[in-house]
Amino acid sequence: MESGINKLLLFILIGRWLFAQVVFSDSFEDISIWNMIHSEDVEITLTTEQDVENRTLLRLDYNFKSGAGYCGIGRKAIIDYPENYRFRFGLQGTGSSNNLEFKLIDETGENVWWKIVRNLSLPAERKEFVARKREIEFAWGPIHDHTLWRSTEIQLIISSAEGGSGTLWIDNLVLESYQTLPINKIQPIVKLNGKEENNHGFFDQKRESCRKKMFSRSEKVEIDLCGNVELGGMVIYWDPVCVDGIYQLRFSENGENWTPTLSDGIDQTGVSWIRLTDMDTRYIQLELKKPRVSARMGIQEIEYIAPEKAADMNSWLKNRVERAKYGDYPRYMFNQASYWTVIGNVDDDREVLMNTDGQVETGNRGFLLEPVVIMNSKIVTWADVVTEQTLEGQYLPIPTVIWHHPEFMMEETALISGNPGESQLFIRYVFTPQKVSTSKCQMAVVGRPFQVNPDYQSLGYPGGFVPVYSIESNGNILNVNETRRIDLMQGADCIRLFDNHDGIGLSEIL
Fold this sequence. Notes:
The protein is mostly beta strands.
């Protein structure tokens, strides 16, 4: 009986430690304490509404009349910050993509901390916006200590990216104090179909020596992290027999309220990279399904990724680059400088970039096209050749990149032709085998969700990753993202599409 009481008391103490405590809240019942903030050329109105769950919504209608400027709301609130904290509020809206700035200002009014989300497409349905301590950065001000100890004003600002007009609804602003377990302190308890597995080996970082757990057609793994954890992502290494299977994930902070199911298939690589944005969790449910009854499933290892390594897509993909073959990704993803030139006509906004490795960015913030050579069932990339760069006539903005390889030579030339506003990009590839037989090698051009503009550089928008969310193929014509058309001329044999692989490495497409 005594041991039962001790267990109950321990459970209560752990539970109190896990759950967040409210430090500050505003349900927007009284909007008179909120001030409207806007530049001269922006119209703004502020009202309240009730939603179907009887929450009070603060409604902000705005119009960027000249396309530029800023607008938003602010209120006074003296806040002393705990050791770890997070702000949360409900967010939804309509309108073009603009920047959302959540600002905290000290009593001098000169020192500002913020979380800024650039080019945000407002969600049509309510979504929780979270600003954690680690995500709130010092923005500007004369103070030497950039740690946020106290603020006296909160602002929520929309600054122009695309401008236009729109409506923003926010509700239930809360600041919580809470504690989390560091990734390296996790000591999970794993259950398979409700039965605890002591020697599971899922987290020992020894995939080669780990004894695989085998599952039947549909099994459920339950993981208790024994503390609240901020997760940036997960990497699941499957046994090879799991390929073509399906996994489903759910997460919960308290074991009662679960996130909607996240589901995906297991591809030929046998590794699932799962980026989790804004994820705080203690409990994880992993359900495995295999279409063939006779096949059994196994997990070799589950690895957790820290949140700072998943803050944006560039940071997230660099986790993959750490394990990738050199050359599988653009040079800058390997933390190397990337050099490029601009191709375009005077007074034409249809400019493109071409770098010294032969990668061409297909327009402003567009994906890139990259040549590769498939030789003896291996991919030859920019990392495997010696490159040479020239300009037409030594001065015209028509660049050429030449690949020199013991087995072949490849020459690539790019130019913009046509009147401003109607110009087109042309790329010519000339492949010349030298020692290798043409039957043993093949040249290919790969479209990839990256810019030539590197991740460490901003040309009005972040460089690096750029999404490719739709590809349509019609013969030798590709329509990408519904905005760019690619015509493949003579010499193009086939088109292969790889769906649902953001930033996949080149070695993984064979």
